[in-house]
Amino acid sequence: MSNQKPGAKKRLDWIDQTKGLAILGIIIFHFFQNYPDRINLVNILDRNGARWGYAAVDIFFVIAGFNTSYSLASLIKGGKISLGRIDWIEWLRKRIIRLYPNYWLAIILSIILLAVWGRVNIKSFQDLILMGIGVPGYERFKTLNPGFWFFSVILQAYLITPLIFFVCKWKAQRILLLGIIVGAIAKIMALANTEDPGFFIFLVQSNLITSYIFPLCLGLYWGFIYCENQKFRRIDWEVSIAAFAIGIAMYGFLLLSRIEFIYMIGFDILFTPLFLLLFYWICQTIIPKMTLAGKDLNLFSLMGVYSYQIYLIHQPLLFVALPILGKRIDLPSYPRLFLAIIAIAILITLYVFVFIQLDNLLGKLMEKITQKSA
Description:
Blueprint: H1 13-34, H2 40-77, H3 88-116, H4 125-133, H5 139-144, H6 148-168, H7 172-191, H8 197-204, H9 213-229, H10 234-256, H11 267-285, H12 299-305, H13 307-328, H14 333-373
Helix pairs in contact: 1-2, 1-11, 1-12, 1-13, 2-9, 2-11, 3-6, 3-13, 3-14, 7-8, 7-9, 10-11, 13-14
């Protein structure tokens, strides 16, 4: 996800709006996951929201790949770089500089927030150092902030992107095929280790980039396609709909057979392409009519611009403050739920605003440091 500020350069509006819709879906899922009053509506939205939460995360990795290849393809098309010739070290440096300051700030604010509630759980100084580096899959990090896994995996995505281009020789079709093959192998490995729950979840959910290699490669593929056509093609829709139909048929069979399954076991490969195209259609046809008065960016665009920051910081507020808030509102179940939604929306908005202001100050400081060292 980009950490770029509005107006820094020409953006594709539908990209920001798609990320805005995706982060909103994730926040809603985490809200119902942590809400303490387990009434029927909350249980239903929690159970089904998990699938939408996983799907929204897949969208972020599609967009991460899309932004990379679209930018590179645009530079090639404009004659600014030659095909296959890019300073990957400089490319990685820019992305690492964008990722780490936000992440470190999120660590500090998470510690402060949890300290207020007496919930800080850092075992040792070594844990803090490893957390600062962003070691993948280290479960202790999640006791401080479950959202930290995303930093680790998006960092892995950026680190392997040059390798993907090298192995596939900048061929879009090869990149997509690589994503399908490696993604399928990752699912097979996960299924072969279902008797080891810890290793199973490590493989399939949110620790290694192998869990998201398909959406990343799909985004890399579509970035080239979109740069060439400035739209998605008919064949993109046809293949995506066909894959979705196969997924629905498999879903139905498993449901009728009463076989336990989770979304991440292969269904992301079948569903993610159409989900992205549907987000694109919504952002092209519906959201432009919802712009704020006097503003070029609508609410979803603004959320998309800061989606990386929102992902990093929203979870501690939900899994610490929400249970306490939900219990303290002395009203019947559904009015209490309604007020809790409003209260949490206000708290997250204020929290994100403070984070962004601090992030801007930190960004200016980093720019001064890098300019002096240059």
